[in-house]
Amino acid sequence: MIQVDQALSIIAQNSAKMPVKKIKVGKALGYVLAETIYSPIDMPPFRQSAMDGYAFVHTDLNTLSVVSSSQAGDYQNIKLSKDQAVRIFTGAYVPDDADTVVMQEHTTATGNAVVIDKFPAPFANIRKQGEQIQKGQLVLEKNTIITAAAIGFFACLGITLIKVYSKPKVAILVTGNELVRPGKKLAKGKIFESNSVMLQAALKEVGIKKPTIFRVKDSLKATTKIIESCLTQFDILLISGGISVGDYDFVKEALLQNGVEELFYKINQKPGKPLFFGKKDKQLVFALPGNPASSLTCFYVYALPALKKRLGFTDIHLPKMNRKITSAFHNNTAKTLFLKGFYNDETVTVLESQSSAMLNTFAVANCFIYIPHTVENVAQQQEIQIIPFS
Ligand code: AMP
Ligand code: MG
C-alpha cells in the first residue's frame, strides 16, 4: 500500500503525452497547443479608424470640406489637403494622408462640410498597423489550453490549422452481475448501474466526449477476454468494480494475465483504497473501486491528472485552496481522507454521510476536504486544504 503523494507521482511519471495532430482551428476548443505559433500578418493589417467620424490631417482649421467617404472594407487612394476631411466609419481604412480621426459626436455636419466642435489630439482614434500583433510576433505558446478567445485570435490572423495533442481514446469497462441499466426493470438482488454514466459525465469536463462503454459479468474468463480487446483499441481504460478482495473480484488477475504492468495497487486513503493503476506500452489502466463515491473520488484525484497529462496540460491536478473548517474533526484512521465538503468564500463544512457506497452527499458537495494521513485532529476554525471540484 502506498501514500497518496507517491501514487500521484507514479501517475505523472507514467502518463505520456498523446501524439501531435493538425486540426482545424474551429475544432480546437479545449485541446492543448503542441506548437508555438507566430503571427503570419500584422493585425490590424492597415491603419484602421477606431471611431465613426472624420479623418483629416491634424490642423487648426475648424471647418473642413468632406471630399469622400470610407466605409469598413473599402480601399480608396484618397488625397487630402489641410482643409479637407473624409467621412469614415469604425474599422475602415484611414487614407494615407490623414493622421487623425475626430469622432462624429464632436462634430457638426453642414452640407458638404464638417465643423469640428472639439479637437482630438493629433493621431487620435486611429488603430496603428500591427498595434495588436506584428508579423512574426508570438501569438500563443506551446502548451496553451485553447479557449474560445484563442480560437478567435487565430482566426483574426488567418490561421486555419494548428498542431495539438490528440485526445486519448477512452473505454469504460463496467463489471458486476448485480448491475442493471437505468430504465430496465429492477429484479430482486439487482441495483441500477450508475458508474458508467457518472464517469462519462466527468470525462466531458476534459473534453472526452464519447468514451466507449463495455459491460462484463463477474467471470475471470470473460473479464480477461474483454480487457484483451480493450487494450488493442484504447489509450486509457477505466474499469469499474471487481478490483477488491472478494471471491468474485477478477479484474486484477485479468489485467495481469493480459500483461498489464502493475504500477500500484491500494492507496492509504479513504474512500478509494483498492485503486489499481497499471500500464501496457503507453496504454493506461485505472481499475476504480465499484462503490460509486470511491469510483468518482479516484477518478478526480488520479485518473483526471493522467488524462490531463496525456492531453498536454501542464497543471494536471485539481487546484487546492485553504478554508476554515466549521467544526472540529478527528481522523482515527491513519489514512488520508478525501471528505465530501461544502465551501463558501470563508469556510468549509464536512457534510454528513461520508459513505463510499453513497452518492447522496457527493451530489451536493462542491469540494473534497483533504486530511493527510498524518493529521489526527483538526480544531474548529483551523485552516485546512480543500480541493474544489465544481
Ligand atoms: P465491487 O468493487 O465490484 O466489489 O463493488 C463494490 C460495490 O459497488 C458493490 O456494492 C457494487 O454493487 C457497487 N457497484 C459496483 N459497480 C457499480 C456500478 N457500476 N454502479 C453502481 N454500483 C456499483
Ligand atoms: Mg463487483
From TrEMBL:
UniProt cofactor(s): Mg(2+)
SUPFAM superfamilies: MoeA C-terminal domain-like, MoeA N-terminal region -like, Molybdenum cofactor biosynthesis proteins
Keywords: Magnesium, Metal-binding, Molybdenum, Molybdenum cofactor biosynthesis, Transferase
Any matching Pfam family: MoeA_N
Xref: Gene3D superfamilies: MoaB/Mog-like domain, MoeA, C-terminal, domain IV, Molybdopterin biosynthesis moea protein, domain 2, Molybdopterin biosynthesis moea protein, domain 3
Pathway annotation from the record: Cofactor biosynthesis; molybdopterin biosynthesis
MoaB/Mog domain: residues covered: 171-309
GO biological process: Mo-molybdopterin cofactor biosynthetic process
Gene Ontology MF annotations: metal ion binding; molybdopterin molybdotransferase activity
Residue ranges of the TM segments: none
PANTHER family assigned to the protein according to its UniProt record, in alphabetical order: GEPHYRIN, MOLYBDOPTERIN BIOSYNTHESIS PROTEIN
Annotated protein name in UniProt: Molybdopterin molybdenumtransferase
